[in-house]
Q: What sequence folds into this?
């Protein structure tokens, strides 16, 4: 169904015109006869739809809403330590909804759902190039870059002059195992996390001074052993030093900070005298404060190899070495630890590639070279995936843009759209009008890319190789050359990027996480010009845009909705389904795998099913006049919350009266007005915590 353009040299075209005139045959007919003798290439989109997918494709409603069950898996060992935004770590098995963790950029994000613990899963130990290990099940999702994905593009350069690398995709543990090596090398790398973001702390001792004391300070006093050049730096920050001893056999001198008694008291209050360690207040300090702490350590105790360049620091205490590693990793760097024995005594050597200049002393600072953006030091490789004895595993859902979160003490980032992406591809290939635009939209652009980008390119692989399709990695756009139709990825987190475009088809994935205005104010108007279509995909998760569209689609013309449970898709084998049903709570299983909207919330008092039935009930006028009139008042809590006055009489509820940005005194006046206006028999006020109510 696709028209292909063929380039013909002018000389050949001239000869064809002469032949056509000689034979008295129209040129177009001559060309058609010529093409019939050619063996035209065919392409395989590598898609064999299952029964439920065929049902979706056969449904030609303009607006289609599909509720799909979750995939099983995406789970980590319950004993995996998860870095917490509040500080420290928490076992995966102990996390609850509302906990704050970190996304892959180091930004705090919320745990929106902590799923039930699963048993008897196929588990693997994933080992990384820095020695870190994580146990996950076979279906756990990872964002990785393979050797092929890591190659540079040839059509675009970054402003720095470094060619832009292709991005990675989301893969399961099992998929990583199957493609672990490429040409004898480790194939999968995971980009390093950003520096985790804590609030600036009120430190009793400036971070740099404390780091320098840890590096070369006397463990019992407020003395610091440094080379003379260090005192110049100390003076720039207002610190005073005096020489108290000098080793004339070397350049080393011992200094005491003026006012050492005060510093001594502060060190004692931190509990570090005779017990060198990094207190939590420093481990949980801001990014810049942790950088200063590391600079103090590296200026006094660290070194750098100018050739590699690799930083190194050696400690006598293993416990202190592990805390320094925690600081390094929390700043988004990979480090490794090795033991060195000298004269029967153990020393602990930490090595790492710095992503910032962690030295202030000139002779060390001059050796530092800023890492290139596409340098291998910006990621850690997966070196092995080994089957292990099954153990309890669990997964969480977070509200980060990418849906990734950091796991383990090494801060490793970890993480049903085939049918919908095939609709985009099929529509784009067959489109007859000019400049068609078909879009895939997820709550966040990074999420859209992780879910759909690799999948679309995989389906169109043969057409890409034939040159029939152009791929623009930078703009996440695929153009069909024969008709100029485009497939493009968007994120609902940037609605302005969608304004002013004309759409011919759209897929909205994970609709429940999108704001209603995305559809009402942007997507729907953009589809109006050429009567484009839309597919909504999601899993029941409470009352939101997805549940609204699913139920309304049953009554609106041109709309349709359908749901596909785990039994309909058969995507998970029957034995595994029975295990999930046995191990999960009835409500969780119904919501996640049976697409039961009425089971959408664990703490839900009134089910969606009851709400739907209530909305369909028709009451005759005056049928509730016998019942008392009740006025309910729900004052706003904070932020964007609204205050609401609700009127009810028997089975009948009247339109809610909502106020935003209203203080309690103004709300009290409104309550008085409606008491006088409606004359209720009783008024109930939700006092909540009682603050000012």
A:
């Amino acid at each position: 169904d696709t028209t292909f353009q063929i380039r013909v040299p002018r000389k050949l075209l001239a000869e064809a015109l002469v032949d056509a005139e000689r034979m008295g045959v129209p040129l177009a007919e001559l060309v058609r006869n010529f093409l019939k003798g050619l063996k035209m290439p065919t392409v395989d989109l590598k898609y064999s739809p299952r029964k439920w997918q065929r049902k979706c494709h056969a449904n030609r409603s303009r607006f289609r809403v599909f509720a799909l069950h979750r995939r099983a898996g995406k789970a980590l060992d319950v004993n995996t330590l998860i870095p917490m935004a509040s500080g420290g770590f928490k076992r995966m098995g102990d996390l609850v909804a509302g906990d704050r963790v970190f996304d892959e950029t180091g930004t705090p994000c919320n745990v929106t759902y902590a799923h039930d613990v699963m048993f008897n899963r196929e588990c693997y130990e994933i080992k990384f190039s820095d020695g870190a290990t994580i146990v996950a099940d076979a279906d756990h999702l990872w964002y990785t870059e393979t050797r092929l994905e890591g190659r540079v593009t040839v059509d675009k350069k970054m402003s720095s002059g470094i060619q832009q690398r292709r991005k990675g995709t989301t893969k399961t543990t099992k998929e990583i195992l199957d493609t672990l090596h490429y040409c004898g090398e480790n194939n999968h790398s995971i980009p390093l996390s950003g520096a985790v973001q804590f609030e600036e702390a009120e430190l009793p001792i400036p971070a740099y001074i404390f780091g320098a004391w840890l590096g070369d300070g006397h463990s019992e006093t407020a003395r610091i052993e440094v080379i003379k050049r260090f005192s110049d730096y100390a003076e720039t920050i207002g610190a005073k030093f005096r020489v108290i001893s000098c080793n004339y056999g070397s350049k080393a001198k011992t200094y005491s900070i003026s006012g050492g008694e005060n510093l001594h008291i502060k060190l004692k209050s931190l509990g570090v005298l005779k017990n060198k360690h990094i207190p939590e207040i420093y481990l949980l300090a801001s990014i810049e404060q942790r950088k200063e702490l590391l600079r103090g350590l590296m200026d006094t105790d660290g070194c750098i190899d100018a050739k590699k360049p690799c930083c190194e620091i050696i400690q006598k205490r293993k416990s202190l070495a592990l805390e320094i590693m925690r600081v390094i990793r929390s700043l988004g760097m990979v480090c490794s630890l090795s033991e060195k024995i000298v004269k029967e005594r153990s020393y602990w050597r930490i090595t790492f590639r710095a992503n910032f200049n962690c030295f202030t002393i000139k002779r060390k600072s001059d050796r530092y070279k800023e890492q290139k953006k596409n340098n291998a030091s910006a990621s850690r490789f997966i070196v092995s995936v080994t089957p292990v004895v099954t153990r309890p595993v669990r997964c969480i859902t977070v509200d980060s843009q990418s849906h990734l979160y950091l796991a383990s003490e090494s801060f490793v980032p970890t993480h049903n759209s085939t049918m919908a992406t095939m609709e985009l591809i099929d529509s784009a290939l067959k489109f007859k009008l000019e400049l068609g635009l078909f879009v895939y939209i997820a709550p966040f652009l990074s999420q859209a890319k992780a879910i759909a980008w690799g999948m679309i390119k995989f389906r169109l692989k043969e057409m890409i190789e034939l040159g029939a399709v152009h791929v623009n990695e930078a703009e996440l756009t695929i153009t069909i050359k024969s008709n100029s139709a485009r497939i493009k990825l968007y994120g609902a987190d940037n609605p302005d990027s969608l304004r002013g475009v004309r759409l011919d088809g759209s897929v909205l994935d994970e609709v429940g996480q999108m704001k209603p205005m995305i559809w009402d104010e942007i997507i729907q108007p953009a589809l109006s010009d050429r009567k484009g279509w839309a597919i909504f995909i999601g899993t029941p998760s409470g009352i939101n845009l997805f549940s609204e569209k699913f139920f309304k689609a049953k009554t609106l013309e041109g709309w349709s909705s359908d749901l596909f449970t785990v039994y309909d898709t058969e995507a998970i084998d029957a034995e595994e389904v029975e295990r999930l049903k046995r191990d999960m709570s009835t409500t969780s299983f119904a919501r996640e795998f049976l697409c039961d909207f009425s089971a959408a919330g664990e703490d839900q008092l009134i089910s969606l099913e009851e709400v739907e039935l209530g909305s369909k009930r028709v009451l005759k006028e005056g049928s509730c006049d016998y019942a008392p009139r009740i006025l309910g008042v729900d004052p706003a809590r904070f932020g964007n919350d609204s205050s609401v006055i609700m009127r009810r009489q028997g089975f009948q509820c009247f339109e809610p009266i909502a106020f935003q940005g209203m203080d309690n005194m103004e709300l009290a006046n409104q309550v008085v007005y409606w008491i006088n206006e409606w004359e209720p028999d009783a008024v109930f006020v939700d006092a909540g915590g009682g603050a000012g109510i």
